[in-house]
Amino acid sequence: MIQQIIILLIFLVAVAYMLRMFYQTFSAKSGCAKSCGACSTIDFKKIQKDLEKQQVKA
Fold first, then answer.
1. Are 35 and 25 in contact (CB under 8 A)?
2. Global pTM value
3. What is the pLDDT of residue 50?
4. What confidence tens digit (pLDDT) does each residue in 2-58 have?
5. Which residues, other chains included, contact 24 with Cβ-Cβ below 8 Å and sequence gap of 6+?
6. Is the dihedral of CA 39, 42, 43, 45 positive or negative?
7. How far, in Å, CA of 8 to CA of 2, rounded?
8. If you write DSSP's letter for every residue of 1-58 in order, what string do you get?
């Protein structure tokens, strides 16, 4: 009996985790639907500016 309760709890936690992932995917405000957070960390404009500064210095 206790084993079935533990398995049920693990299953419910897994379902809650999947529902949370789906919710984050469809409620993404940045336009990215992957929910990994990588899109917001890459700033291509800043990278371009840094490269231009390095070329000017060289």
1. yes
2. 0.49
3. 86
4. 999 999 999 999 999 999 888 877 775 555 656 566 565 566 788 888 888 888 876
5. 35
6. negative
7. 10
8. -HHHHHHHHHHHHHHHHHHHHHHHHHT-SSS--S-SSHHHH--HHHHHHHHHHHHHH-
